[in-house]
Amino acid sequence: MKGAYAEVISYNKKNLERELQNENRQHNRKQNRTKRREEEI
Length: 41
What we know:
Blueprint: H1 2-40
């Protein structure tokens, strides 16, 4: 039982890290778009 529980925790941790990386990437993309728009003006 304990082993399965540990596996779930480690899976959730990896999943969470991947989600955070995705959010950071999306945030950076939005910032880049804004920068480009400011340069055009």
